[in-house]
UniProtKB/TrEMBL annotation, chain A:
<protein>
    <recommendedName>
        <fullName>DUF4004 family protein</fullName>
    </recommendedName>
</protein>
<dbReference type="Pfam" id="PF13171">
    <property type="entry name" value="DUF4004"/>
</dbReference>
<dbReference type="InterPro" id="IPR025063">
    <property type="entry name" value="DUF4004"/>
</dbReference>
TrEMBL record, chain B:
<dbReference type="InterPro" id="IPR007607">
    <property type="entry name" value="BacA/B"/>
</dbReference>
<feature type="region of interest" description="Disordered">
    <location>
        <begin position="1"/>
        <end position="22"/>
    </location>
</feature>
<dbReference type="Pfam" id="PF04519">
    <property type="entry name" value="Bactofilin"/>
</dbReference>
<protein>
    <recommendedName>
        <fullName>Polymer-forming cytoskeletal protein</fullName>
    </recommendedName>
</protein>
<comment type="similarity">
    <text>Belongs to the bactofilin family.</text>
</comment>
């Protein structure tokens, strides 16, 4: 089971008030499914996935001076904020590498501009290549997977896991929160939360 | 491209229509509309039954209507009665008669002077209730003002919650910044007369958990109350209080345990 934190401990640790927490919930800055209700000796209590919520609150606190709550909500929402970006601009602004763009273009044919969902694919591919977690051939597998599962990716709340066992590798795309149990020889090479990738991407694009 | 002039529908007596795109739709008798309707103005003085969805700028219902689909409207006034099977999306909603909505309600300003019941969730910038409201889901607003009777099965979450108690109010959980619950003081002669027959203990709010930054509560029954500054007024019965900055308790209140955290 995921590491949970109670509402009371969260307020203490993140140093925020009830009012702030409820305001952010109202503004959709914190996803509904992070509010987990459990019974305790004082009755029902609300718990949160600890790492996710602390990271999110940290982000809200650092960004809220520059962005309005509504702009923040846009950033955290799975729906795209922009429609498309040209290939030229992508590499000029150093959002993804030329290598990733070339691989993407080889697979899908030449693209003049990329939609938000294509950008997400590119972003994930780029970061896997940059970290050296996957090689080119495996990168193509990823493109294939994202291409076939476009609808799943679009609806967000997905996690991407890359596993290798004795040199054989494969990707897993699963709804959040993923809870995988691996055999000992299998190695989890990379683990991405797509919703987090989208946030990072939106931050880079803005 | 020039926009083609849209036609109007006016049904006086009894009639049917297949729906479509119109400028004004007026029902003075009884009407049955079979498809989706898109129009600038919808007015029903009699009774109307719409099988599809409706999108309109203004909707005024003086009689009774039944919408089987979703309703999307800028300004809606219900003086009679209205049933919506789908979701309601609006800028301004005024319910002066009675209304039931099976889906969710999303708006900017919701004013209830009659009675409204919603099976889904309600979210709006402002909610002002002087009547009766029943919500089976959650209710979210920047400001929630109630002087009447409400029952919320889920979470009431608002920046400012201002409740003047009249009869029994209920929410499973209440959370927000500033929460004030008071008993109505300016009882009119008529109310005093009713009070004479009904027991006085009915003016009460009950909730499992109430959490907020600044709380003032009267005649409130709750399991747990948590907040920064808490003032507990008369008539309260609270099992447990957790506070951060300050806590005041009226001598006429019952509190199980209290803890400064």
């Amino acid at each position: 089971m995921e590491n949970l934190i109670s509402k009371k401990d969260l307020l203490e640790e993140a140093n925020i008030s009830y009012g702030q927490l409820y305001r952010w919930k109202r503004k959709n800055l914190i996803p509904e499914n992070w509010f987990i209700r459990k019974s305790t000796f004082t009755g029902q209590e609300t718990f949160f996935p600890k790492d996710d919520i602390l990271l999110r609150i940290e982000k809200i606190k650092t960004l809220k001076d520059d962005l309005s709550l509504d702009e923040l909500a846009d950033m955290f929402s799975p729906s795209p904020t922009l429609t498309s970006l040209s290939a030229e601009e992508l590499s000029k602004r150093n959002i993804v590498s030329q290598t990733a763009i070339d691989m993407f273009n080889n697979f899908h044919g030449r693209n003049q501009s990329f939609s938000f969902n294509q950008l997400v694919t590119l972003y994930v591919l780029n970061s896997l290549l940059q970290t050296g977690d996957v090689n080119r051939a495996e990168g193509l597998d990823l493109l294939e997977l994202f291409h076939n599962q476009a609808q799943t990716v679009k609806n967000a709340g997905c996690e991407l896991i890359f596993i290798r066992k004795m040199g054989v590798s494969f990707f897993i795309l699963t709804p959040e929160p993923a809870n995988l149990c691996l055999e000992p020889q299998a190695k989890k090479i990379a683990h991405y939360k797509l919703s987090q990738c989208m946030e990072e991407l939106k931050l880079k694009l803005s | 491209m020039e926009r083609t002039q849209l036609k109007n529908i006016s049904i006086s007596g009894s009639g049917t229509s297949s729906g479509g795109e119109y400028d004004q739709v007026k029902v003075n008798g009884s009407a049955h509309i079979h498809g989706d309707l898109v129009c600038e103005q919808f007015k029903c003085n009699g009774s109307a039954h719409l099988e599809g969805n409706i999108t309109t700028d203004t909707a005024k219902i003086n009689g009774s209507t039944h919408f089987e689909g979703d309703v999307e409207v800028k300004e809606m006034t219900i003086n009679g009665s209205s049933d919506i099977d789908g979701h309601l999306l609006c800028d301004e909603l005024k319910v002066q008669g009675s209304s039931t909505i099976k889906g969710n309600v999303k708006g900017k300003e919701i004013i209830v002077r009659g009675s409204a019941s919603v099976d889904g969730n309600v979210s709006s910038d402002e909610i002002d209730v002087k009547g009766q409201v029943k919500i089976k889901g959650d209710c979210e607003a920047e400001s929630f003002e109630a002087r009447g009777n409400f029952k919320i099965d889920g979470l009431l979450n608002a920046g400012t919650i201002d409740v003047e108690l009249l009869r029994h109010c209920e929410a499973k959980e209440i959370g927000g910044e500033n929460i004030t619950v008071k008993k109505t003081r300016d009882a009119s002669g008529f109310k005093k007369l009713i009070k004479f027959f009904m027991s006085n203990h009915n003016d009460q709010l009950s909730a499992e958990v109430i959490e907020g930054d600044n709380l003032y509560l009267e005649h409130t029954h709750a399991e747990v109350v948590r907040g920064n500054t808490i003032e507990i007024g008369p008539g309260c019965d609270i099992k447990r209080i957790e506070y951060k900055t300050s806590l005041e308790i009226d001598s006429d209140a019952k509190v199980g345990s209290q803890e400064k955290i």
